[in-house]
Amino acid sequence: MSHRINIYNITTPSKIEDSDVMVMEWNYEIPLLLQALFIEGGEVGKNIYNTHTDPDYWGLYYELKPGIENLRRFYHFIEKHPLELALDTGKFLEAKTKLFNYLENLPNRYLHIDAWDVFNMDDTPHKYQASQLLASLQQNNQAINNVIQADDISLLDFKLFTNGAAGGFDNFAALLNFSAFDFGWAVIYQEHKAPGQVEIFEENGLYGLKAVNGDVLISPGYDDFYEFDYNTDLAVVVKNNQFGYVNKAGEVAIALSFDDAFDFEGDYAVVQKGGKIGLITLNGQIKFLGNYDNIKLLQPYDQFCSAEINGKHGIINVDGIVILPFQFDHEIADNGTGWFYQVEENGKNCPQIFSDTFKFLGNLDPAFIDPWQLFGAENFVYQIRKHQYQEVNKLVTTNNEVLLTEYEKVVQAYPGGILIYKAKRYGLFKYGKHLVLEFLYHQIIDLKLYLTGSLKSYIPAIPADIQFEPYVFFKVIKDKAAGLYFSIANFEAWLLKPVYEDIKPIYSGFFAVKLNGKWGMISLSGKIETAIEYDEILETIVDGEIAYALKDDEIYVIREFDVLPAGKTNLQQYMDVNIQEGYSFFDRQIQFRMEAYLNRH
Predict the structure, then answer these.
(1) For residue 192, what pLDDT is reported?
(2) SS3 514
(3) How far is residue 210's CA from residue 217's CA, in Å, rounded to a whole number?
(4) Cα–Cα distance for residue pair 112/7, rounded to 1 Å
(5) Residue 51 lies inside a defined structural domain of this protein
């Protein structure tokens, strides 16, 4: 029997909810095509489904929305290189549309990777295996990001990914075009992927519809019968040159009253009637009809359309109101995302770029623009990186108002803020607050820390209305002094002032702090849990234990309510794993101290 990895879309990492959705069940591994989903908030935590090996049942948790956007970037890159990558562009685009429609309609905030079944193949503790899977996903996502940033398919070299990422394929193109993956769509759990299967059939040149059990739902009578749209379960049908829509129950959903009709994209579809082109709603009501030569819905759907009149292109909204005048020689495109829009301009080397609200941002290569959605901003915020027509980096609003300029680089963008580097110092920018951390700090490090349980139980000052927003813990270093800084939405706070020599996360809500050359344990509330007197403090891989603490010749295990001499069995297991992994947990010197401790006891 094969061993499986399960991925769930969940409401909370601490318990099962009725709204949870099984997203994927796949043998042995997460296919590389979908690993870009696992980009933000990655943390090791207890499983909520497979809990059969108490207390050793650990998995991973990630934020869904940033993962969708990261995966979209990757698929957009693939789409840009059809000749080298996707052999059947039509099938790729169809699978891409289905995949992102599915992901965007998932109801919950988190993705939970439950690899319990696969982890059971190895005697190594599940917590350790989960941390290794986390590291593998980080490495592969870094490789994917490098590919996208460089716009270079040669970097899709399996040598740059983790061992096993290739999945037995010789190259990425072979993996991408493997029929069993269907460009990533077939990986989605079947029960949620394809309810209500029906079959379009032809008889004597006319088309009908039947259920999978053979029951005829629509007798053959249509001149043409197009495929069902995944999003709406509606299909365009044609009879006597009139177009309309039917559903999978065999009912006419929208009467055959149009001269032409197209699939729904979001809540609207493009139709033609009486020589005019416009949009209809899902219930068949005409939104508008106008004297256009062509209309195309843009992403994100339900907002804007690219339209053409007499060879000139412009933008209208879904009410038919002109947003950009009809003065462009080329179609205005959504860049595959709707984060910004672009149009080629005759006589110009670079396209015109418009924001998500169609404010002009400049003539530049789209590779130089980075869009972000920040808390407090109704629309996107953009970084426009310096290029041949612009000497400095700029951070601007959707209206092209400058928020920040003359910095060297953006280190990382988060939903709550942007980490920025300038003049050999780091600062943290927040929309509406400017710099909440000025450019004073030698390092600001994202600890990539995820807490189990309620965030307010750790930090009561967080307003209730933002407690479920994405958050970040930063280790902030100034003049060799380290502190702990927390950021979520429009709230931020120093949890530990920068007075320590070092800080490192150990366990959910617990940190090791170094002062005067010695280590101690401190909780998120600032309460000192142990004396600052140890030579080293290390995270354990054994459930129920928080850390190991080394002092002189002794080794202690720190638990939530006490500190005891370390037990031989668990300590030996930790040492064995450390050797197997090339001393990745601690160095040989600490290994020797542990061996000496075991020999004495």
Answers:
(1) 46
(2) strand
(3) 5
(4) 5
(5) yes
How far is it, in rounded angstroms, from Cα 323 to Cα 326? 9
Q: Tell me how far apart the alpha carbons of residues 90 and 103 are, in angstroms, rounded to a whole number.
A: 20
Query: Would you say how long the chain is, in residues?
Result: 601
Tens digits of per-residue pLDDT, 155-208? Answer: 888 878 877 777 777 788 888 887 778 888 888 875 544 445 788 999 999 999
pLDDT tens readout for residues 82-114: 667 777 777 888 888 888 888 888 888 888 888
Q: Decide if 415 contacts 66 (C-beta within 8 A).
A: yes
Of 149, 169, 193, which one is at a domain's C-terminal end?
193
Other CB atoms within 10 A of residue 263 CB: 19
Q: Is the pLDDT of residue 541 over 50?
A: yes
More confident position, 292 or 177:
292
In a domain, 138, yes or no: yes
Query: Which residues 6+ apart lie within 8 Å of 164 measured at CB?
Result: 29, 136
As given in the structure block, the two tokens for residue 472 are: 């970040």
For residue 407 the two structure tokens come to 């910095």
The continuous run of DSSP H or E covering 516 comes out as none
Q: Which two tokens stand for residue 464?
A: 């209730």
| pLDDT of 268 strictly over 80 | yes
Query: Cα–Cα distance between 203 and 418 in angstroms, integer?
Result: 61
Q: Domain span at residue 511? A: 501-601
Q: Which of 193, 211, 226 is the last residue of a domain?
A: 193
Handedness of CA 15, 16, 19, 21 (dihedral sign): positive
- Strands 276-281, 58-63: parallel, antiparallel or unpaired by DSSP? unpaired
493-539 pLDDT tens trace: 999 999 999 999 988 788 999 999 999 999 887 777 899 999 999 98
If DSSP codes are grouped into helix, strand and coil, which group holds residue 525?
coil
What is the CA 284 to chain-centroid distance, rounded? 35
Residue 161's SS3 state is: coil
For residues 55-61, average pLDDT: 77
